[in-house]
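Q: May I have one protein plus its fold?
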Amino acid sequence: MANPDFSVLFNGIDAKDHNVFRDFLTEDAQFRFANHPAVVGREAIVSFLEGWFQSIAAIKHSDLTVRAGEGFALTEGVVTYTRHSGSTLAVPFANVFNMVDGKIKDYLIYVDNSTLYTEA
């Protein structure tokens, strides 16, 4: 089965739309965001994201590049976070997706957003 349209996924994330995100995951998916512990299970992941999305005012992915093959996809680009204060942090990111039947089984995010909750 072919990999999904990842632009739909990132547009959904940028809209903070949990339903779009949910639709891309297997039931037993694993999600690891930067140095946070892994979250396992589609509903647990969505719950984690609902809380995390509330911690920022907005998120925007740009300069997206996708490389995909049988059973995997890699994405990279720039993510811009908008803090509740209105200030922003733009950093490069890379994601590794292990795919099963066109859905994300493992969603691994590599980003250094360690200064997100501190004002520069």
